[in-house]
Design goal:
The structure is a homotrimer of 222-residue chains.
Chain A: H1 5-13, H2 15-40, H3 45-67, H4 78-94, H5 102-126, H6 131-152, H7 166-181, H8 186-206
Helix pairs in contact in A: 1-2, 2-3, 2-4, 2-5, 3-4, 3-6, 5-6, 5-7, 5-8, 6-7, 7-8
Chain lengths: 222, 222, 222
C-alpha cells in the first residue's frame, strides 16, 4: 500500500510527467467514484456525467475561482473533460464489478488527494499568496470536489465525518510548504509528501483513525 | 407547440431584439417557477425573492464566474434584477391560478432553456474558449440556475432525473457550434436551434422521453 | 439592546478602527454559531473548522467572486483565518455553557449582520457598481455565509424562513445608500445604520416579527 521504490525513482527521473500521470489517474478515479454516488441517487446518465465532472474537476475549479486564477485549468485542457465524462459513463457499465476493486480505488483516491493537494499548493505559491492561503488552496483542491458532489447529491459531505482524509491533505500541504521553505529539492519534497500522505491515509483506513466528533444536540439557530 | 412562422421571420428581421425579448420572457418564467418551488418549502417572501433571482439569473452568474467574464451580466442591467424579483413576488399572489397555465409555462421554460444555451455559447465563443468549453458554457447557463434553486431548496436537482432537458441544451449547443463552424448566417442558425430545441423538448415532455437511469444500491463512499 | 452612547461617540472619534473591531467580533461570533450547527450534524473537528470558516468568511468570499474583486479579503489577512478557525474549535470545548450567552450572541450576530452589510455596500460602491448591485452586495455579504453553512449542513437555509433578518440587512443597505447620496458624513451615516439595524433586529426577535410566508403545496416541477 506504500509507493514502490520504482515510483520514487521515477519522480526523480521525471517529476513533471509523473505528477501529470498521477493527476490523470486521479481525476479518472474521482470521476468513477462520483458516478457511483450519482447511481445511489438513481440519476440519469446526464446526472452521472455532471457528478463525475464535478467530483473530478470541481475542486480545481473552486480553487481557481477563489484565487482569481483564470482561465480555469480544464477550460484549457478539453481532454480532461472528455476523460472524466467518459470515465463517469463507463462506470455505469462496469459498476457491478467495481466492489472487487475497492482496495485499488482507495489507493488511487489517496494518490489523487495528495496530487490535488500538491497542485493546489503550487498554484497558490506561484500567485504569491501567503502561507496559510497556500495550505487552504491545497486542501480546497483536494477535498472540495467531493464536497460539491455531496451537496449536489443532497447529503452532508462525507469529508466532514469520515476517517482521516482532510487531515491527510493538511499534513501533506504543511509538509510541502515546510520543505519548500527549507529549499529541499522539488522532486525529493514531492516524493516525501506522497510517501507520508499515503502511509497516513492507508493507516487511517486500516485502523479507522478518526478525528474527535463534536455532537451538539441543543437547537441554537432557528 | 413549434415556433410559428412569424417568429422565425422576425428572427431574420431583427435577431438581436428577438433574442433579448425571449431572454426577458425566459428569466421572468424562470423566476416564477423558482418562486413556486420556494413556496413548496414554505419560505417567506424574502426567500421567494432569492430563489426567484437565483433560478433566473444564477446560471449566467455561474457561467461568468467560471469563464472569468466580469462584470457579471445582471450587475450592468439593474432592470433584470427588478424584473425577476417582481416576477417572483407577483407569483405568490397568482400562484393558485398558475396550474391552468402549465402548458404555456413549459413552452416558455423551453424557450428560455434554448435562449440561455445560445447566449452561453456566444459568451464563451467571444472569449475564444475551445469548443468543448463553448458547449459546457451553454449548458451551464441553461441548467445551473435550476440546480442552484434545488440545492437551496434542499433537494436533488430535478435536471439530473427528469425527461430530456439538459440533453436539449446539449443538442442546441452542438448544433449552434456546428452551424457556426459551417459559417451559416447567425439568424438562420439561431432559428434552426430554436426550432430543433423546441421540437425535441416538447416531444420529450409529450412522450416522456428520459435518459437511461443508473441505479447503484451498494454503499461505496462512507 | 441599543448601541450605547459611548459606541456612537467612538464611531465619530475613529470610525475605521471601530468598524474593524466590530468586524472581528462579528466573524468570531459567526464562526462560533457555525460550529454549533456543525455539532448538530455530529461532524468531526475538521468539519467544525470548515463550517466555522465558511459561516464567518463565506459571505465576503461570494461577494468578491460575484463582483470580480480580487484578491479576496481573507487571502490578504491570514489572521482572520486563524481567528475564525480557533473560534470554531474553541466552541467545541465551551458549547455546553453557551446557551447562557444566547442573548449576547444574538446581539453580536446582529452587529455582525450590519457590519457585513455596510462593508459589502462599500466594496461595491468603490467598484462603481450601480445602486441595486450595491444593495445586493451588502445583503450577499450579510447573509450568504449562513446560507453556505446551511447548504453544507444539508438543511434549507434558515434565513429564508426566520424572523426579520435579511430584511434588516436590506433596510441597512438602503439607508446607507440613501445617506451616502445625501452626502451625509460617513461616521454619522454608519452610526445611524447601526442604531436602526439593531433596533429593528432586536424588535424582530422580541416580537417575533416575520415576513409573510408563501406556501404552495401543488407539485409543479418534477
Amino acid at each position: 500500500m506504500l509507493p514502490s521504490v520504482s515510483l520514487l525513482d521515477s519522480f526523480q527521473a521525471s517529476q513533471f510527467s509523473v505528477i501529470l500521470a498521477i493527476y490523470l489517474v486521479a481525476i479518472t478515479a474521482e470521476a468513477m467514484s462520483g458516478a457511483l454516488v450519482a447511481g445511489q441517487r438513481d440519476m440519469d446518465i446526464f446526472g452521472v456525467a455532471v457528478i463525475a465532472f464535478v467530483t473530478a474537476l470541481g475542486g480545481g475549479t473552486i480553487r481557481d475561482m477563489v484565487l482569481g486564477h483564470y482561465p480555469i485549468g480544464w477550460t484549457q485542457h478539453p481532454e480532461y473533460v472528455y476523460l472524466v465524462i467518459s470515465a463517469g459513463l463507463l462506470t455505469t457499465l462496469v459498476a457491478r464489478y467495481m466492489h472487487h476493486l475497492k482496495r485499488v480505488f482507495l489507493l488511487l483516491d489517496a494518490m489523487g488527494l495528495i496530487a490535488f493537494s500538491l497542485i493546489g499548493c503550487s498554484v497558490a505559491l506561484e500567485l504569491n499568496y501567503p502561507p496559510v492561503v497556500v495550505v487552504l488552496s491545497g486542501m480546497l483542491t483536494g477535498i472540495s470536489g467531493g464536497i460539491l458532489r455531496d451537496v449536489l447529491c443532497n447529503q452532508v459531505p462525507v469529508v466532514f465525518r469520515r476517517e482521516l482524509y482532510a487531515s491527510v491533505s493538511l499534513t501533506v500541504c504543511l509538509l510541502f510548504l515546510g520543505l519548500s521553505a527549507l529549499d529541499v529539492d522539488y522532486n525529493v519534497s514531492t516524493a516525501v509528501c506522497f510517501a507520508t500522505g499515503l502511509a497516513l491515509r492507508m493507516a487511517a483506513i486500516r485502523f479507522q483513525w478518526r478525528l474527535p466528533v463534536f455532537s451538539y444536540q441543543q437547537r441554537w439557530e432557528d
